[in-house]
Write a structure and sequence with these properties.
This protein is an alpha/beta fold and 229 residues long. Strands 2-6-1-7-8 form a five-stranded parallel beta sheet. Strands 3-4-5 form a three-stranded antiparallel beta sheet, with helices on one face. The longest helix is centred in the C-terminal third of the chain and has 17 residues. The chain is globular, with a radius of gyration of 17 Å.
Length: 229
């Protein structure tokens, strides 16, 4: 049997989806697609154009009129991909990782019109196959027909420490407690939103990564891939 062509990896913020998904995609020769960057991009553009994201209709308009593309990395600066926006293909890869964007992305992603707009774009990409797509609702909403669905989880303290380590490595001045508080609030919003809440698909395999390092998680997923082929 062939390898699973569509692999969906879901989970809360900083559960390791991006790092794990990228390595699994590289090993399989598949496209890696982080759905979160789409919502971060809309959040960044909305904040820049509107100054705030409290007007859901206005934010949805930004999403509708703003072409966003995710491409293989074009700069060797530690990025996993390049995110461009607008007709002039502005590189916003690192801009969408700012603390301000991180603090507002969950409410933006909860706007139904924004989710509909971006879900349609992601489905067109995902249904081509040979892809590892990571996010919050890939296995439940975006690609429910995925051949393999995985739900990664970890304690919020572990996830906050991971995010803190990432920001320190990039030279950003952020403290652990503020990151922890932000993750707890994002978990609350993501899990309680009416449209596409964060939840494991019924047929997903759940992996708790609290006590695991990256190679161990990748190895576990490789084993799952092998059993589905």
């Amino acid at each position: 049997m062939p390898l699973p062509s569509i692999i969906a990896i879901d989970g809360p913020v900083a559960s390791g989806k991006t790092s794990v998904g990228k390595q699994v995609a590289d090993k399989l020769g598949y496209l890696f697609f982080d759905s979160g960057v789409m919502y971060r991009a809309v959040t960044y553009l909305a904040l820049r154009q509107l100054g705030a994201v409290d007007d859901a209709a206005a934010v949805a308009e930004v999403a509708e009129r703003s072409p966003i593309d995710v491409r293989p990395a074009t700069v060797d600066d530690g990025r996993d991909y390049t995110v461009v926006a607008g007709g002039e293909h502005e590189d916003i890869t690192w801009a969408i990782r700012s603390p301000k964007v991180e603090a507002q992305v969950s409410p933006v992603s909860a706007v139904p019109a924004v989710r509909r707009c971006l879900t349609a774009q992601m489905r067109r990409i995902g249904l081509k196959g040979r892809i590892v797509m990571v996010g919050r609702d890939i296995g439940t909403v975006v690609l429910p027909e995925a051949d393999l669905k995985i739900f990664l989880t970890a304690s919020v303290e572990t996830r906050a420490q991971r995010r803190y380590n990432e920001t320190q490595a990039r030279g950003e001045a952020r403290d652990y407690e503020s990151i922890l508080a932000n993750l707890r609030e994002r978990d609350r919003i993501d899990s309680s939103r009416q449209v596409a809440p964060l939840v494991a698909a019924q047929d997903a395999v759940t992996l708790d990564t609290t006590g695991l390092d990256l190679p161990s998680v990748v190895k576990a997923i490789e084993s799952l891939v092998a059993t589905r082929s």
